[in-house]
């Protein structure tokens, strides 16, 4: 709308040409809203309320007389209240860039005054103290011109070519260097120890790996050897078991055959021999009795009787063999040998009976001779 003016958010609108402003100010202050201004009769100007910056690079002398170059940055602005806007508008409305110039000069003067009361060591170690004191001393002066300071930063303090700050920091630098060297040495030692430990661990791992590999290879070789020998060993073991079984079977067969031979041949033969012996003794005793009873009939009658009994003796001996389980191994010759044996046994018995009869007859004659007083010598 024609004649209606609105200031920006970071501006203050100053209207002159009408009635006076607050507190007798030569203009009215409008912020945050618009205002209808009559053309020709009213004049409108705008004052910035934005943040401004001023840099300071000032040579100062410390309490020890050491020249220092101090660089600082001041952040400032026009105050938001009407009084500050009026004060700043009256001073800087026509040339608002002068606010930064004047602010730098004001702070440069306060820096020189405060640094002159401090030592270099205090300035280096207590920069915040320096900034606080500068702000406090400049606050009232800045308020008079309608400005407020938001912050003050001391950027650097330089002693030029005097070397005072370097000398002051030398012990600390040396200590820091020593600490750095010690730390580097410790780090190098730790690194070397770590490398040595890693080498030892690697060597131990390689040794253990070699041992395990050797054991594994030995196990594999042994398993392969056992696998290769398993067939022949199993076959040999089986053959050994077969031979043992055959030997045991043969031994059992031999024992059984021996028992069979004892049962079939030896025992019957022993029984038959015992029977023949008993029969022969019985016959001899009978013939002896007969001989004694028939002694008076003479030798011829006795021999005749024995000869007559010989076939019967042989027959009885032969009948004893009929029940025996006798194996004849050589055929007809074997049978002849058995018959001859029987006859020989009969003749042996006959001779035994005859000798007994003769001995008995001789003893009787001897007794008769003793009775008659005559000894018959044969």
From TrEMBL:
SUPFAM superfamilies: Band 7/SPFH domain (SSF117892). CDD domains: SPFH_flotillin. It is found in: Membrane. Residues 2-172 form the Band domain. The keyword Coiled coil applies. Its main location: membrane. Residues 173-202 form a coiled coil. Keywords: Coiled coil, Membrane. Residues 358-378 are annotated as: Disordered. Belongs to the band 7/mec-2 family. Flotillin subfamily. This is SPFH domain-containing protein. It comes from Streptomyces rugosispiralis.
